[in-house]
Amino acid sequence: MSSTSRFSSLSPQLRHEIFGHLDKDGLSACSLLSKEHSKTAQELLLRSVTVRHWKEDTSTYVFTACLSTLSKRSPHKLKLIENLTITAVDPSPDSFPVPATVYVEDIALILAQLPALRSLKLLSVQIRDDLKTAQPQIVPRPLQVLTLEYTDFLIPRPIKPYVRCALFTLFSMFSSIGSLDFRKGVSFAPDGSRAGGPIGKLSANAPLVVREMAVTWFLYRGWMPDSDICDYLIEACRIQVADTLKITMDSERGKVFAKKFGRDVSRLEVTGPKSDENSDELWDHTEHCKALTTLVFGGRLNPMEDFFALDELIASAAESLTHVTLCWPYSHKRSSREKVEMLVDQKWANVDSALSQFEKLARVEILCEYDETIREADGEDDEDEEWSEDDDGEKADARDAHGSSTVKTLFSMKGALDRILSQMPLLRARNIVILRVNPS
User: Is 67 in the same domain as 176?
Assistant: First the structure.
């Protein structure tokens, strides 16, 4: 019987008791349960493991020693670990974790002993490569999720010829990655020592296929252009994004990642303002997104102007684009009525003209984000609402009957949609425009 079926057979009260004790006391709490349920609780606990650095450079050593002991005494338990987080000590709830050094050699030892590992998260650590030792020999393995957050890397300078560093060694451990998430605080610093030596013939290495990659505001200590780190990831680490690319940064930087990684992606999500208010060509010459079928755009300062800055990028996908989503953020400093009026008063005629030329376009979604506190203040707890052109207005009428002026204004999107659609006759004739309301 699988472990999943054993967990589901436990009563809700017992599951609550297990989770309550495990959250407080860790593995020792399993002793409070019967022998049968203690084993089940241990298996559940081992699914997700967090390694914290209580002392510099020691925690991963202790953990690898623990894994080595388990491999001799209870090798089956190593197959239970599916999710692993390596992080630094968090000294207080109100501060960021203190960075600690983790060597990629230790990560290689850990991966070699965890055959069922699906997800690896490196949080607030400095990744280093012990360049004095031979590069760890590990058979590349697939990984479903790799998350890097507040993680620091040294990148050799000058960038070419490519030499060994922690970033290269880390990615050489994987044959494929389902989701690669560069979250906030990922930092790259130039390293002029180049002590790692050349990494050999890159053309002989198989590409590292990443199904989905997210990039959020890379940080740099010292001058290093975005194009350099992209080149290292593509040419040295052999990363190839196959399906989805998510970019959260200003367009001046974001276009670099779209150009470098957008060649094969079918879905592109872009969030962030234009870098230069006087520039209308920030996304020009982005010819590599020719396979694009879905574009999700979320501007933050002036969404409509930011969207029009994507003209060249959208045009490059003229033969493939089928879905476009424009995320419109409500300003929390404005009243509900002002928010709706601002939405209606945008240049929807220009959107209509720009998108109507795409014959394969099957859906244009306008996603409106509003302040969740407005819903709570009015006692509303409904799920996200969606209207299309041929709605009969029942949802809007029901909300009007609620009696709250704020709810009436905020949720009278049927009328707002009609006013928007009146500015979009070409797309309206194709009946492909949808308006949705989401909490921000």
Answer: yes
